[in-house]
Amino acid sequence: MFRLPGLLTRNMLVAGILLMLAGDFMFALNDAMGKWLVASFSVGQVVFIRSIGAFVILGPMIARQGPVKLFRLDRIGLQVARVVATALDTILFYAAVVHLPLADVMSFYMAGPIYVAALSHMFLGEKVGWRRWLAIVIGFCGVLVMLKPSSAALSVESLYALVGSVSFAVAIVLSRLLRGTSDTALVTWQTVGVGLCGAVMAIGDWHAASAVDYGAMLLLGIVSGAAHLMITRALKMAPASTLAPLHYTLLLWAVVFGVIFFGDVPGPRILIGAGIVVLAGLFIFHRQNVKDTVPPETVPKGVN
User: Fold this and answer.
1) How do residues 215-254 score in pLDDT, each as one tens digit?
2) 107: which residues sit within 8 A by CB, 6+ positions away?
3) Residues 169-209: pLDDT tens digits?
4) How many angstroms separate the Cα of 56 from the Cα of each of 46, 62, 216, 218, 231?
5) Closest to 223 in 3D by CA, of 166, 303, 105, 108
6) pLDDT in tens, 45-69
7) Axis-axis angle for helices 102-109, 268-291 (nearest 10)
8) Taking 60 as the threshold, does the pLDDT of residue 300 lie above it?
């Protein structure tokens, strides 16, 4: 009987790891579905319908919390900034995957934790030692390898992915500043913001779609919402420092789905750059763990 608490702890840890892996798989599936849809429909149309679908998941959460609490927000300026950053993250991701392979875009987003470490030092006053600064610089070099910034090779789509990944990191930092706001309120307002941006973008660029197509767009929001809930629950069951490195399985699934569904095989430049980024990110997580300064919010959430 005295072993029961230890057994429960191990079971919770295993359950947290499995939920994290399942959540990342769902996010990767969401991204692959999104790439398939934006090949036939405008980004604004897909994002708008996707946001409506998200309320299948958000509806019960809002009902349980109470709709009134959605409007009791502090630090309104930061709330708006976070919604803008999240909207940029989502829209630029889908704009990038219109023309770039899924794994290429996801590789840029894997640099998110590296940007978070740098932004946390500048805006949150968190101490970042020289080892992590070195990892940040090396990680950004990996981004440059993927970006290949020359007049002959630089593409608008690559810039979409780069700016989107930076927006993703900014949203995470702002989430840390707004940690007093409930998850339901944060996710609801970011979904509303993304949906409104999608609606504006879809004006004059709306394509006729079948019931199956609309169903797939709605499913995007449901899958993304379910993935977010899985990862949120995982963080309550296992340490963030244990779960954070598992987020890089998103890149693995992006490669697998890209090859299976789109016939996209990452080139050597993307693989090398992504490898540098992943290693730098893992080192940053390791140093955060050593310093015992890994709050749950540093674990990257879904890219869209």
Assistant:
1) 999 999 999 888 888 887 887 777 766 777 788 888 889 9
2) 146, 251, 254, 266, 270, 273, 274, 277
3) 898 888 888 878 888 888 899 999 999 999 999 998 899 99
4) 16, 11, 14, 9, 18
5) 303
6) 999 999 999 999 899 989 988 888 8
7) 30
8) no
The distance between the two most distant Cα atoms of the chain, rounded to a whole number of Å, is 68
Position 191, amino acid: T
Distance, in Å, from the CA atom of 214 to the CA atom of 206, rounded to the nearest integer, reads: 12
Residue ranges covered by each domain of the chain = 13-298
Cβ atoms within 10 Å, residue 3 = 7
Residue 141 to residue 81: CA distance in whole angstroms: 28
Task: Read off the pTM.
Answer: 0.83
